[in-house]
Amino acid sequence: MENGDLLCEAAQNGDVEKLKTLIESGADVTYFDKDGLTPLMHAAKHGHAEVVQSLLDAGAPWNALSPSNLSAGDFAMDAGHQSAFDVLLYAGIQAELVLGTIARKENANGGSNVEYLEDRISFSEDKLMDAENKAVMMAWEKPLMEAHAKAVCSMGGDVLNVGFGMGLVDTAIQQYEPTSHTIVEAHPEVYKRMLESGWGEKKNVKIIFGRWQDVLDQFESYDGIFFDTYGEYYEDLREFHQHLPKLLKPGGIYSFFNGLCGGNPFFHIVYCQLVSLELESLGYSTQLIPLPVKDCLGEKTWEGVKHRYWQLDSYYLPVCQALEDSE
C-alpha cells in the first residue's frame, strides 16, 4: 500500500499520530484514492475534526472535488459532523478572503461582463440566453424575484435595480408603487426591448443605460437596492458593495441575486458566510432566508440550456439592513 492510501486509511480511522508521521515522511495530502477521494474527504466523512485540521495545516486543498462533485465540506455536512464541518467552513472562508480561488476559477470559465455586452442574446417566453446558450435569466426565478422585490420595497420610497434581464424583479417592484424606480441595464438589446415594452413611459421609472461602474455618477440614494447583473463575478459584487454606504439610506434594504457557487452546497455556504462577513465589515447585517426551489427545477426547465447555474434544493435570499449607527 502506498503512502497516499495509508494516509487515507489513517484519516478514515481518525489516527492523528499515524497521519502526522506519514505527512512528515512526505505523504501527499492532495492524493486521490481509487474512488476519487482525498484524505481530507475521508476524515470529513467520518467526522474526525482533529484530522481535518491537521490535513488542512499540511496544505490539503479544502475545495478539491470528488467524481460526484462533492467537497470535504459536503461530506461532513451530509453526515452531520458539525465539528469537522465548522473547521472546513472556517478554512474555506479564510482561503477565499485571501485568494478568491473559486471566484477566479468561475471567472476564467465564464468570460467577462464586457464580452457578454457584445454578445447577441435571444429572448423566449421562459428564458433569456447569451450567444453560447448559457441562461442569463429564466422564468423559474420569478418567485425568487418577487421575494427580492418585496424585501427591497419594504421601506417604500426610492428603489434601485441594477440589471433588468427579463424584467421579473422590476415588474414585481412596480406592484409596490415606489416613489421612484431606477433601473440600470447595460446590454443594448435588453435596453431596446425595455423601451419597446413601454418601460421608458412609466411615470415613476428612470432608466440608466450602461454598465453600473460607468454610470455611478447618475445614482442617487435609495431606500431599497437590488443587484443582479450577468457576466460579472464575486469581485464585481464586492466592488458594488463598497459603494453601498453612499447609495443606501440608513435603515434601507439591500438584496442581490445569490447565485454564488450555485452548483455546490458547501461552496455556496462558504460564499454566503463570506458575503455576510464582508457586508458586516461595511456596517450591514445580513439575514439569509431559505426558499425551496427543488420543485421548479425539473429536467424540462433546463432543456436547451448549456449550463445549469443552479443545482441546489434551496435558495438563500439575502436581506441586508443598513444599520442606523453604521455611518
Automatic annotation (TrEMBL):
Keywords: ANK repeat, Cytoplasm, Methyltransferase, Nucleus, S-adenosyl-L-methionine, Transferase. The keyword S-adenosyl-L-methionine applies. One of its GO terms (cellular component) is cytoplasm. It is found in: Cytoplasm; Nucleus. InterPro entries: Ankyrin_rpt, Ankyrin_rpt-contain_sf, Arginine_N-MeTrfase_2, RMT2/GAMT_Mtase, RMT2_dom, SAM-dependent_MTases_sf. GO terms for molecular function: protein-arginine N-methyltransferase activity. Residues 107-327 form the RMT2 domain. ANK repeats lie at residues 2-34, 35-67. One of its GO terms (biological process) is methylation. Monomer. S-adenosyl-L-methionine-dependent protein-arginine N-methyltransferase that methylates the delta-nitrogen atom of arginine residues to form N5-methylarginine (type IV) in target proteins. Monomethylates ribosomal protein L12. This is Protein arginine N-methyltransferase 2. It comes from Oldenlandia corymbosa var. corymbosa. The lineage of its organism: Eukaryota, Viridiplantae, Streptophyta, Embryophyta, Tracheophyta.
